[in-house]
Design brief:
mainly alpha; 7 helices; single chain; globular; two-stranded parallel ribbon; 4 strands; 10% strand
Length: 194
């Protein structure tokens, strides 16, 4: 009952509360991006959602407009592309805040496998082995608190598969609070190829 019904209702209610409570922060970040770099403050990118349906994910823009459409950790020198305010937003994960609206719309959940980029075919295909593409992607998940960008495609997919196999309210609550610790320590964040 939780996986197929309650999870979506809880996500919707929490997302509405967060959107209202932090509307001042959304506005502040929006203004800071607009006055420090050219381009829109909100960045949209095609991601793979439930049942491999593509959707537009929302983020605060942290990179310059001419940045290639690849995962940041694959860029040779991402610092060339990341804006001044973008560095702060990425370090604190505040760039992810607009995904609250993806959760309200039903594109995403609060907890679940992070949605793959539309062109991450290796990750999308590996996830098929573990039925990861059959659930709503999340703002944070087991792979994010277990190594994030440092994980191989295979390891990330296995962790996402483990989450899908065990989806429960208890696990979601645990992952929610463990995410805060992970963000504070900036665990697993990798900017650029080493």
């Amino acid at each position: 009952m939780y996986k197929n019904f309650l999870k979506r209702i809880i996500d919707f209610i929490i997302a509405i509360i967060i959107a209202c409570a932090f509307s001042w922060l959304f506005l502040l970040i929006y203004i800071l991006i607009k006055i420090t770099s050219k381009g829109p403050a909100i960045f949209k990118q095609q991601r793979v959602g439930l049942n491999k349906e593509l959707f537009s994910i929302y983020k605060f823009r942290t990179m310059k407009m001419d940045t290639p459409d690849v995962p940041t950790h694959l860029l040779r020198d991402p610092n060339v592309y990341i804006t001044r305010i973008g560095k702060i937003l990425r370090k604190t994960s505040l760039d992810e805040l607009p995904q609250i609206f993806n959760i309200i719309k039903g594109d995403m959940a609060i907890i679940g496998p992070r949605p793959a980029l539309w062109n991450q075919y290796d990750l999308i295909n590996e996830r098929e082995k573990y039925q990861v593409n059959s659930v709503r992607p999340g703002l944070t998940g087991l792979a994010q608190i277990s190594g994030r960008d440092e994980l191989s495609i295979i390891d990330k997919s296995k962790l996402d598969g483990e989450y899908v196999r065990r989806i429960s309210m208890a696990d979601d609550i645990s992952l929610f609070f463990r995410t805060f610790l992970s963000v504070l320590k900036a665990d697993g964040v990798k900017e650029g190829r080493k």
